[in-house]
Amino acid sequence: MSVDSTPDITVARHDPYGVPADDVAASQEWLACLRETCDLLWPPPAEVTLDVDGAGWPGRRHAARQPDSVFALIPALHRPPLLVPTDRRSAAAAVRHYSATRSPAARLYVRVLAAGLASGLGRILLRGKVWVDAPTGADTIERYLRSVMSPDVRVSIELGRARANRKPVLQILSGSGEAVGFAKIGVNPLTSSLVRAEYESLERLSKAGLREIAIPEVLHYDTWHDLDVLVLSALPAWRPRRPLPATRLAAAMAELARVDGLHSEPLAGGRYLRRLSSRLASADEGPEHTALVQALEVVAARADSAILTFGCWHGDWAPWNMANTGRGLLVWDWERFTGGVPLGFDALHYWLQSEVGMSRRDPRTAAAACLERAPQLLGSFGIPARDAQLTAVLYLADLATRYLVDRQAQAGARLGAPGTWLIPAIISKLDRL
Q1: Per CATH, is 246-432 categorized as 3.90.1200.10?
Q2: 0.85 exceeded by the pTM?
Q3: Does the CA dihedral 229-233-235-237 come out positive or negative?
Q4: Residue 230 in 3-state DSSP?
Q5: Residue ranges per domain, the chain?
Q6: For residue 18, what pLDDT band results from cuts at 50, 70 and 90?
C-alpha cells in the first residue's frame, strides 16, 4: 500500500490497448480516470491492482491471489471500457444491461459481445483485469451497497467520456446476474450537486402521477465517505425497442412540462431571463461569456413584448436517455430536471442532440438548423412561429450557459465550447427576432 493514503494501484503494462499513437492520449485519459475512481471507491486499507494487455487475457502472475473482487475491462464502442465481474454470467448480464448505447451499431455490438461472454468466446476481447484486495473491516463501495441492498449483489462500473459531469455509475447485479439497480456517485461539487438534484427530482416526480413515461424509483440516498450515493431501480432498457411515434413523444414531453402547471409571462423582465442571467454571471469571464451576455441583452430588448408559456423540462431528454419498449416509454438521467423554462425546450434538445450525437452532423450547422426548424419542432405544442424561434434562441443560450458554468471545455467534453457552435448560431439569429 502506498504512503499517500490512497489505494496502491499497480499498472502492469503501460501501453494497455496497443492503440495507435493518435489514441494514446485518450487511453491515458481513461486510465487516469480509472485511477481516480479506484481511489474513491476502494479507499485504504484496500489495495487495487490494474493489469492491462492488448494480447488477450492477462494476469497469470496473480493466479495464487485470492482477491475480494476481480473485474474485467471490456472495450465499449467509441467509449472508455466497462469494468464487469469476471464470471461469464455476470459479465454477460452487465454488458447486456448496459443502457448507454447510442445507435443501432452500438446496440448490435452489445448484443454480440454479451452473447460471446456468455458462451466464453468473448474472452479474447477482454483487455485487462482490476483486482481489489480489501482486508476484513475495510469500508468499500461494494460492501456499502451490499449493506443497503443485498449481501449477494455485485457491481459493474461505467467510466464514461471526458466531461465535467463525469462520475462513476455502478450497475448493481443480483447473484443470478439480473440488474437490480444503478448507483450514481457524486465525486466533486458539480457531480454531487447533480446527484442530489436527481434524488430530489425523482422524489418529486414520483408523486406527479405521470402516465406517459416510466421513471426510476429511488431505492437509497445517503453519503458515504463524503460522497453522495444515489441508488435507483433498474428500468428494463435492455428489452427490445419499439418505434416511437412523434405524437407519443410530444405527448410525453407535454405531460412533463405540466408537472407544476403551465403559466405565461412576459419574457423581458421575467423570472426566466433573470435566473438565466444569474447563472451566466457565475461562469468564467472570457470571449464566450461576453458574447453570450451581449446576446441575451439583445434578446431582452428585441423581445420586450413577447409573452411565452413556461413549464418543466427533463433537461437532457436525448435518445440515449430513453427507450420505448413493451414496458412503456422509459426515461432516465433526471439530474437536470428544472421548472420555469419556456415550453418546448425538451423537444428542441431531443432534436439537436439526435443530430449532433447520433447523426454526427456538424454541430454549428445543426444549431443553426434547430433555430430554423423550431416552428415545426414546436408545432405540436401550439407555439406560434415567431415565439418558437425565440424559444429556440433561449434554448441554445440556456445550453451554452450550462456548458460555460460547468466548464465543460476545460474538462475535455467534445462539444463543451459553446463559442464554436451554439453562440454563433444565436448571434446569427438576433437580427431576425
Answers
A1: yes
A2: yes
A3: positive
A4: strand
A5: 9-232, 246-432
A6: very low
Which candidate, 289, 288, 287, places its Cα nearest to that of 277? 289
Residue 413, CB-side half-sphere exposure with 13 Å CA sphere: 19
C-alpha cell belonging to residue 378: 414546436
| Cα–Cα distance for residue pair 338/329, rounded to 1 Å | 20
Q: Report the DSSP beta bridge partners of residue 341.
A: 311
H-type helices in 303-384, by residue range?
A: 345-353, 363-377
Grid look-up 468499500 returns 140
| Residue partners of 119: CB distance under 8 A and separation at least 6 | 88
Which residue reads 502472475 in cell numbers? 61
Q: Output 359 or 284, whichever has higher pLDDT.
A: 284
Peptide bond into 135 cis (omega under 30): no
Q: Alpha-carbon distance 181 to 328, whole Å?
A: 18
CA atoms within 13 A on the CB side of 115: 6
Residue 127 binned pLDDT confidence (cut-offs 50, 70, 90):
low
Contact 46, 7 (CB under 8 A): yes
Segment (H or E) for 288:
helix 287-302
* CA distance readout (Å), 124 to 73, 119, 128: 12, 12, 10
